Amino acid sequence: MGNLSYKHFTLGVEEEYMVIDPQTRELKSHEQKIVHEGQKVIKDKVKAEMHQAVVEVGTDICQNVDEAFNDVAILRKTISEIAESLGFSMGAAGTHPFSHWERQLITDHARYNEIVNELQEAARSNLIFGLHVHVGMETREMANHIANSTRYFLPHIYALSTNSPFWEGRLTGYKSFRTKVFDKFPRTGIPDNFDSIESYDNYVKLLIKTNCIDNAKKIWWDLRVHPFFNTVEFRICDVPMTIDETITIAALFQAVCAKIYKLRSQNLNFMQYSRALINENKWRAGRYGIDGFLIDFGKEEEVNTRVLIYELLDFIDDVVDQLGSRHRLAYVHKILENGTGADRQLKEFDKTQNLVSVVDYIKDNYLAGI
Predict the structure, then answer these.
(1) Strands 54-58 and 46-48: what pairing?
(2) What is the CB-side half-sphere exposure of residue 2 using CA atoms within 13 A?
(3) How many other C-beta atoms lie within 10 A of the C-beta of residue 24?
(4) Please, which of 75, 90, 227, 363 could form a disulfide with 216 given CB 3.0 to 4.6 Å?
């Protein structure tokens, strides 16, 4: 099997950032000024989001994790410089520690107006910031196979990304409250597995035919075979505070895909677990981050989350050198040592008992490692 090529597992990374008022540290509408200025420099890599205090960026198609790192670094730096020149600050966290969604403006755009009109308060309150990682696929059939099998690892990787412990000025008790907010949307969470790409396509066609959705982009699952590109898109994670965390998580998703592909090429399949079981682990990951226990369904017992993350690193070990990502995955140990974004936000709050300081901490880490 030495000649297996992983070249097609390209990466695309999308991040959502918060626009912060440097005086009050509240979320602030930038009236799309950052986006308009950004488009002059980085073209369509920067987009408006539903809420005006959100800026979304996306990389080019990257051949490997180092390219992705450089692309995200340029995006964070460019957006930061533009924001500063306009009198704003930027930050990356799954939720803002204390701003209230009721005071935030919605972007005037046909698609967003339509979503707000349909989903009402669920859409208006959806003031959250995520990370989406696209991994390139050879075929849509292979994409479906890989999506089915990688569902199992979503909670493990999500635990490492947890970065939203506060909501509207309250300590939520969750390491990631962002997913709790997003759960109010339809068609979210861990998807079922589909026995073929045709059955997925038929599901989408049925929803379109019956006016549930107008296109497959309104399927907001934690991972999906992308409706238009040949990618599997991983959508479960909070946007991480720093670039190192983002690239490490992208490297994990890429490696898990490559490993499932390698097993498939040896006629081996990874065990399929039901959505109901994987959901138990997702709930635990959102509540406890890396400090709790996840269920090992093979052994049918609870196992320390950190131990399972080390097991995940062992599982993917034989593909990471060919992907060229070993040095990025080494950062997983740093996350386990220093805590996730949520752990560090909570530590800052413990120290200061002040949510403004927590926002400052998020702001100060936006360009860390770049």
Answers:
(1) antiparallel
(2) 0
(3) 12
(4) 227
Tokens standing for residue 50: 């539903």
Token digits of residue 277: 């079981």
Q: Could you tell me the two tokens for 351?
A: 């120290």
Q: Decide if pLDDT at 1 tops 60.
A: no
How many whole angstroms separate alpha carbon 353 and alpha carbon 347? 10
**Which residue from 157, 163, 151 is spatially nearest to 16, judged by alpha carbons?**
163
Rg of the chain over Cα atoms, rounded to whole angstroms, equals: 20
The alpha-helical segments, DSSP class H, found in the chain are 33-42, 65-85, 110-119, 121-124, 140-150, 154-161, 178-182, 197-209, 243-265, 275-288, 305-323, 326-329, 331-338, 341-352, 355-364
Whole-number Å distance between alpha carbons of 204 and 219: 9
Q: What is the pTM of this model?
A: 0.98
Distances (CA, A) of 239 to 259, 308, 366: 24, 22, 11
> Residue 199 corresponds to which amino acid?
S
Q: Is 191 helix (H, G, I), strand (E, B) or coil?
A: coil
Q: For residue 163, give both structure tokens.
A: 């970065």
**Helix locations, 26-64, DSSP H:** 33-42
Average pLDDT over residues 126-132: 98
What is the tens place of the pLDDT at every residue in 293-317?
999 999 999 999 999 999 999 999 9
**Alpha-carbon dihedral 35, 41, 43, 47, rounded to 10 degrees:** -20
DSSP 8-state symbol, 129:
-
* Torsion angle defined by CA atoms of residues 286, 241, 45 and 116, in that order, rounded to the nearest 10 degrees: 40
Quick: pLDDT tens for 217-238: 999 999 999 988 899 999 999 9
With beta carbons less than 8 A apart as the criterion, state whether 262 and 270 touch: no
- Tell which phi-psi region holds residue 147, choosing left (phi > 0), alpha (psi between -120 and 50) or beta: alpha
